[in-house]
Automatic annotation (TrEMBL):
Origin: domain of life: Bacteria
One Pfam family matching this protein: ABC_tran
A biological-process GO annotation: L-alanine transport
Ranges of residues in domain ABC transporter: 4-245
Protein name: ABC transporter ATP-binding protein
Provenance organism: Teichococcus wenyumeiae
Cellular-component GO terms for this entry: plasma membrane
SUPFAM superfamilies named among the record's database cross-references: P-loop containing nucleoside triphosphate hydrolases
InterPro entries hit by this protein: AAA+_ATPase, ABC_AA/LPS_Transport, ABC_transporter-like_ATP-bd, ABC_transporter-like_CS, BCA_ABC_TP_C, P-loop_NTPase
Keyword entries, A-Z: ATP-binding, Nucleotide-binding, Transport
Annotated GO MF terms: ATP binding; ATP hydrolysis activity; L-isoleucine transmembrane transporter activity; L-phenylalanine transmembrane transporter activity; L-valine transmembrane transporter activity
CDD domains found in the cross-reference section: ABC_Mj1267_LivG_branched (cd03219)
């Protein structure tokens, strides 16, 4: 059985059918890219899987259990995590404290703000920081990190919740090309090691082709192609959307 099974997902905003009958499966440890032009419906799909938006119709099953329409907290509790921008609120906390906070929340404990030298899960936090290459930065205030390091911290925080599926909507936005490759290769390695499935979107097609097991292509809310990098590269419908040159040979 697949880890995640999405069937007939639909969402309209006013007259716009943002997501139009989308179905796909995702296996444990699999790295699945959801790509498509701006406005294709990618974020709307992420938001329906993550619980930020209720679907108009369709089913989202995690290991057979229906989660469509549940709130984000309940969906997170079922094992679906998201990477979000680390907010300025926690900028004065150290890098280690940010990860400890995620670990504490995951274990159902309460973060004690009045105990600044919190020792809970410090070793686990350091292990995660080492995995994302931030061991040296553990004592620094989050607010002074370079942007690329902040993104790696975001990944460590997400993994602190021990998700089985990680949703990453444009995780490398604003990063330099070399950093994009590095962050997604790191994600790829950690996903494999931990058996975590990843659903992500990324504008840089080289990065997508490099790290994905499989790629879904969305256009105007509907899936138009699905396959590995070679299949997607060669797909006439995908070439039409991205390059304006389809199988009919019509350049326009
Ligand atoms: N909250 C919203 N209210 C109205 N329209 C929305 C909303 N969110 C997305 N849309 C519209 O739905 C379509 C898909 O958007 P989105 O899922 O953000 O696409 P993508 O992430 O692929 O760029 C677009 O036409 C967008 O304008
Ligand atoms: Mg988007």
């Amino acid at each position: 059985m697949s880890l995640l099974a999405v069937r007939g997902l639909r969402k309209a905003f006013g007259g716009v059918q943002a997501v139009d009958d989308v179905s796909f499966d995702l296996a444990a440890g699999e790295m699945l890219a959801l790509i498509g032009p701006n406005g294709a419906g990618k974020s709307t799909c992420f938001n329906m899987v993550g619980g930020q938006l209720p679907p108009d119709a369709g089913s989202v099953r995690l290991e057979g259990r229906e989660i469509a329409g549940l709130n984000p907290r309940a969906i997170a509790a079922h094992g679906i995590g998201r990477t979000f921008q680390i907010t300025a609120t926690f900028g004065s906390m150290t890098v280690r404290e940010n990860v400890q906070m995620a670990l504490i929340a995951h274990h159902g404990e309460v973060w004690r703000f009045w105990r600044p030298a919190a020792v809970r899960f410090a070793a686990e936090a350091d292990a995660l920081l080492a995995q994302v290459g931030l061991a040296e930065q553990a004592e620094r205030a989050t607010g002074v990190l370079a942007y690329g390091d902040l993104k790696r911290l975001e990944l460590a925080v997400a993994l602190g919740n021990a998700p089985r599926l990680l949703l990453m909507d444009e995780p490398t936005a604003g990063m330099a090309p070399a950093e994009r490759v590095a962050l997604m290769q790191l994600t790829r390695r950690l996903a494999t090691e931990r058996g975590v499935a990843v659903l992500f979107t990324e504008h840089d097609m080289d990065v997508v082709f490099d790290v994905s097991d499989r790629i879904l292509v969305l256009n105007r809310g509907a899936l138009i192609a699905e396959g590995d990098a070679a299949a997607i590269r060669a797909d006439p419908a995908v070439r039409e959307v991205y390059l304006g040159t389809g199988a009919a040979g019509g350049g326009h």
